[in-house]
Amino acid sequence: MMSRRAVLTGPLLAAGCAALARASAPIASTQGPGVYRYNLGDYQLTALYDGIWNLPIDNEFVRNASPADVNEAFAAAFLAPGVLPISFTALLVNTGSKLVLIDTGTAGQITDSAGLMNANLAAAGVTPSAIDTILISHFHPDHIDGIKTKEGDKVFANAEILVPEPEWSFWMDNGNMSRASDPTMHRYFLNAQRIFKDIAKEVQQFKPGDEVAPGIVSVPAFGHTPGHTAFTIHSGKQSMLALSDTAREPWLFVRHPEWQPSYDMDGPLAAQTRNAMLDQAAADRLLIEAYHFPFPACGHIVRNGAGYELVPAMWQPL
Amino acid sequence: MMSRRAVLTGPLLAAGCAALARASAPIASTQGPGVYRYNLGDYQLTALYDGIWNLPIDNEFVRNASPADVNEAFAAAFLAPGVLPISFTALLVNTGSKLVLIDTGTAGQITDSAGLMNANLAAAGVTPSAIDTILISHFHPDHIDGIKTKEGDKVFANAEILVPEPEWSFWMDNGNMSRASDPTMHRYFLNAQRIFKDIAKEVQQFKPGDEVAPGIVSVPAFGHTPGHTAFTIHSGKQSMLALSDTAREPWLFVRHPEWQPSYDMDGPLAAQTRNAMLDQAAADRLLIEAYHFPFPACGHIVRNGAGYELVPAMWQPL
Fold first, then answer.
1. How many structural domains compose chain B?
2. Which of A54, A80, A85, B215 stands the most exposed, by the fewest C-beta atoms within 10 Å?
3. Local structure of residue B253 (DSSP, 8 states)
4. Does A34 sit within 8 Å of B162, measured CB to CB?
5. Would an 8 Å CB–CB cutoff place B257 in contact with chain A?
6. What is the Cα–Cα distance from A13 to A17, expressed in whole angstroms?
7. Do you find a cis peptide bond into B11, omega within 30 degrees of 0?
8. In this predicted complex, what is the ipTM?
9. Residue A22 above 80 pLDDT?
């Protein structure tokens, strides 16, 4: 029924030709703005899309799952195997008196198909200099690169920067760097030092568990990196959980929380953290948000067999 | 771990107070633009968000499901029972030489929380006068009201309007109107006549099954209304299926395709059509789009037990 085209009828063909004579609109080369707002109590959250990094992966990408099982999970998500589309969405929290940005996007320093966050911040009507506070979940490049331009200039002129103390201790330590034999890890150390070393005096360290901004509480979520941190956000009677990288691509690691991707530094600990947080999110029916969930990167978690499922939030008017 | 706030530490409290002294950004009152582009062969599709109608429903909303089962389906979607959030997203097809709009949004004539389509069309850089062709799936008000303003003026000055012949025959017939005892149905008749009567000479009728624009083939999908029509879109080697109202809220009628909502005029026929199309979409792994799916209203269908599941498309840069 739907696989073949019906024959054009005479009158319609004539109408089609008349229309063809009109001017056409150009095919657009850019996506629509990636700005999605939702309210939480008196706070307003804005999901700011940064883009996607299409990263080729190999058979060792998930340490404890067979390539066949991983490929099946890709197919179930209508994705081609062998390339991981890593989506980036930063979260802006407007408390009414403060603008708090959780993680900072890639600033185009990782791949050409990401780096849209500042354009989307502008589309949201916010200038970088209006940001009061930057909260960093961990020191992987895709979360901290937005702090500086490629040329090394600070992007958020007036923002205080708060980072997890155990992240700072780990990544800013030259001894740890010298012991990192893996070239990617070595690059992460150098990148963390590029971003933070000359602004060290301006950076405040927090202990995961601390309240880090009004109504925003950091939550230890170790495993992905040594000091990886999630955040809960509270306003009025409402709360939500920003998972950071606790669970990344939902079609892989929400559905299979026990899978250990190679980008989790401590695979077993990260899986334990992931299971605990997804379990709590499902049990408490928490609104959740995660940096690598598909834009607008928010929704709820439900149990599904041995794993979980993301129920994306429905796009709403404000 | 996540249910209580940690105590504010001294230094952080001081930092918080300093930040509170800064100017704050206003809480926004409007959602970000609802414009999402995706390519299909040489064609470009643009999902244009119109908003949501929060419609109170009663226990008879699904004719053949218990209120308890319906409420459970709402809860599984993290929605409160008793109010149906009806989302509207129109689809713009740019063939490179023609701009074809499939259905026209509500133009603010149904509820205050919908009527954003023309603002989103503007955000997409398209003026109403640039639209070459309007394809109408069926004559329910939320699909045709955008053709005219409340005051009765045509919105798309240069567009040819193509409608399914059996829709025209049914809704423009005064005998059928006089036999409609249900007040909502009577209102639909009057509304169809308000929209079409004085522009009847400009409206072309097509036979469902006809090719109605270059690469766009209408597909009979009767049941929701007597002439309700879906569309397949073909460009290069790629195809997709625009379901129109064949399946509406996915958490209800994709998951339970046999359920018969009161807005389907012929419930059994609509369910048969819905099952057949979802079955084909799942079997052929078709890209699909539907007017009432949550924005951006596109994705894929997979089988899930006795029903199906929508796998929303991942938001991508272009």
1. 1
2. A80
3. I
4. no
5. no
6. 6
7. no
8. 0.92
9. no
Which residues of chain B fall below pLDDT 70? 1-23
> Is the peptide bond preceding residue B81 cis, with omega within 30 degrees of 0?
no
Q: What is the pLDDT of residue A18?
A: 42
Work out the average pLDDT over A35-39: 98
The kind and range of the H/E element at A212 are strand A211-213
The mean-pLDDT minimum among A24-33, A112-121, B190-199, B246-255 falls in A24-33
Residue A116: both structure tokens together: 């849209």
Flag whether B209 is in a domain.
yes
Is residue B175 one of the residues assigned to a domain? yes
CATH code for position A86: 3.60.15.10
B181 C-beta neighbours (distance < 10 Å), count: 7
Mutate one of A17, A239, A240, A314 to test the B interface: name it (highest B CB count within 10 A): A314
d(CA B272, CA B257): 8
Q: Give the pLDDT confidence of B60-117 residue by residue, as tens digits.
A: 999 999 999 999 999 999 999 999 999 999 999 999 999 999 999 999 999 999 999 9
0.90 surpassed by pTM: yes
Which residues in chain B have their CB less than 8 angstroms from residue A21's CB? none
For the purposes of burial, counting CB atoms within 10 Å of the CB of B127, is it exposed (0-12), middle (13-18) or buried (19 or more)?
middle
Cβ–Cβ under 8 Å, residues B117 and B48: yes
Is A45 within the bounds of a domain?
yes
* Cβ distance of B97 and A36 shorter than 8 Å: no
Report CA-CA distances (Å) from A5 to A9, A176, A184, A209. Answer: 12, 64, 51, 61
pLDDT at B23: 52
> Which residues in chain A are closer than 8 Å to B123, comparing Cβ atoms?
32-33
Q: Is A91 helix (H, G, I), strand (E, B) or coil?
A: strand
Residue in the block written with tokens 């198909």? A113
Q: Evaluate whether A155 touches A149 at the Cβ level (below 8 Å).
A: yes
Closest to B253 measured CA to CA, from B280, B233, B283, B273: B273
Distance in angstroms (rounded) separating the CA atoms of residues B310 and B313: 9
**Do the Cβ atoms of B103 and B90 come closer than 8 Å?**
yes
- For an interface test with B, the pick among A12, A39, A235 (most B C-beta atoms closer than 10 Å) comes out as A12
Helix (H) or strand (E) holding B232: strand B229-235
Q: Which residues face A94 on adjacent strands?
A: A44, A99
A178 Cβ contact partners less than 8 Å away, ≥ 6 residues apart: none
Roughly how many angstroms between the first and final C-alpha of chain B, as a whole number? 40
CB atoms < 10 A from the CB of B238, how many?
13
pLDDT tens sequence across A221-240: 999 999 999 999 999 999 99
pLDDT in tens, A57-70: 999 999 999 999 99
Whole domain around residue B32: which residue ranges?
28-312
Q: Is the pLDDT score of A78 beyond 60?
A: yes
Nearest to A2 among B28, B113, B241 (CB): B241
Separation of alpha carbons A40 and A47, rounded Å: 13
Q: Does any CB of chain A come closer than 8 Å to the CB of residue B296?
A: yes
Distances in whole angstroms, Cα of residue A192 to Cα of each of A51, A113, A264, B106: 21, 22, 17, 51
pLDDT of residue B25: 81
Instruction: Please check whether residue A84 lies inside any domain of the structure.
Output: yes
Q: If you average pLDDT over every residue of chain A, what do you get?
A: 93
- The B residues from 56 to 85 touching A (CB cutoff 8 Å) are 76-79, 85
